[in-house]
Write a structure and sequence with these properties.
Structural class: alpha/beta
Number of domains: 2
Bound molecules: guanosine-5'-monophosphate, manganese (II) ion
Radius of gyration: 20 Å
Distance between the termini: 38 Å
CATH architecture of the largest domain: Alpha-Beta Complex
Strand content: 15-25%
CATH topology of the largest domain: inorganic pyrophosphatase (n-terminal core)
Number of helices: 12
Order of helices and strands: HEHEEHEEEHHHHHEEHHEEHEEH
Strand order of the largest sheet: 3-2-1-4-5-6
Largest sheet: 6 strands, parallel
CATH class of the largest domain: Alpha Beta
Length: about 325
């Protein structure tokens, strides 16, 4: 249900609110959650932002990020004690409960009013209110519309809120290169700049702020860990556990790697298969008609968007690579 009046009613008196995002959050999940928390706090609500797992270190400059609770650092009991009673729960940038990982228990209480803000395909019906638009480039875009409805004037969006939303928009669109970028996306960006975003500095903080070891890792990955299969118009990286140690990789340090595979001429499908914590995480990207969200859903217990999706595998890294190559044989390139 997409009903602003219900949300306005819920927010009419001070509430105890928790904002959660998906595990392994990206800039859209984290930025949209932080923008929302800034808005809600300004309106007099008590707000906690929780991420199931650590957020990317390269986003540690986002306004309000230091107050984010990282659920994997606490036991369930300690976390519940910290957050106390919850009236409203906002679920940001996901609409499938499994994306909360070990934090999924937070959805179980029937007394909490749950609101989803998201743009992923095939949502589950676990919330009371959905602000959901699969055509939106990012959850930040959905949240922007929501703020306009709630605040009634875009000039009331603060520079900090706008900065958080802009971070989500540039990363989910890959700096406005992905086909999810629409005229509306650009109009929203123009509005965000008028609200005070320093667009150049945000671009710099996200893309030109790498540690030397991260840059060395990218160079190593391109020269040693890239598999190019021209017959299948596919290129993919295989990142081993040892690579994380060797380059002292922090959370989020592999983000953006998949785009190097996709940047190859005649490559229409790109992937990163990375081994971490006894799982293999799969990032998929495509150009044109290949629906990677369907591949992620069918084979890797995941999902996402047509041209950008992800999932996980419980098989070994080698077995996952074999499976991935088998899957390629079933795709009509
Ligand atoms: P990334 O490759 O950047 O981690 O993710 C690309 C897109 O796929 C994002 O929109 C992300 O939310 C989605 N995605 C990544 N991993 C998963 C997953 O395990 N399950 C689902 N449903 N979506 C995922
Ligand atoms: Mn998103």
């Amino acid at each position: 249900m997409y009903d602003i009046s219900i949300l306005k009613e819920q927010l009419a008196s001070p509430k105890r609110i928790v904002v959660v995002m998906h595990a392994q959050p990206d800039a859209d999940a984290l930025g949209t959650s932080l923008a929302l928390a800034l808005y809600l706090k300004e309106q007099g609500h008590k707000v906690d932002v929780i991420t199931p797992t650590e957020y990317p270190k390269f986003l540690s400059w986002l306004p309000g990020v230091n107050d984010v609770l990282i659920a994997e650092h606490y036991t369930k009991e300690v976390l519940l004690e910290k957050i106390g009673k919850i009236d409203l729960l906002f679920c940001i940038d996901f609409s499938v409960s499994s994306r909360l990982g070990a934090l999924a228990f937070i959805l179980e209480s029937p007394d909490i009013f749950k609101i989803v803000i998201d743009h992923h395909r095939e949502p589950e019906d676990f919330a009371d209110l959905f602000f959901w638009d699969p055509k939106a480039a990012a959850s930040a875009e959905v949240a922007f519309q929501l703020f306009i409805s709630l605040l009634e004037q875009k000039s009331k969006i603060t520079a900090s809120m706008a900065t958080c939303l802009y971070a989500g928009l540039i990363t989910d669109t890959n700096s406005f290169k992905n086909p999810n970028t629409t005229p509306k996306t650009h109009r929203i960006v123009a509005d965000l700049m008028e609200c005070g975003v320093d667009a150049c500095s945000v671009q710099q903080l996200i893309y030109d702020n790498k540690s030397l070891s991260r840059l060395h890792f990218f160079s190593f990955a391109v020269s040693q860990r890239l598999v190019f299969l021209p017959a299948f118009h596919t290129a993919y990286f295989v990142i081993q556990k040892e690579d994380y140690k060797r380059f002292d990789l922090q959370s989020g340090d592999t983000e953006g790697l998949v785009d190097y595979a996709l940047s190859l001429k005649e490559v229409w499908l790109a992937a990163v298969l990375r081994e971490k914590d006894d799982m293999v995480y799969i990032s998929l990207r495509s150009v044109g008609d290949i629906s990677v969200n369907l591949i992620a859903k069918k084979y890797f217990n995941g999902g996402g968007h047509k041209n950008a999706a992800g999932g996980v595998s419980n098989l070994s890294l080698t077995e996952t690579v074999d499976q991935f190559e088998q899957i390629l044989k079933s795709i009509h390139f």
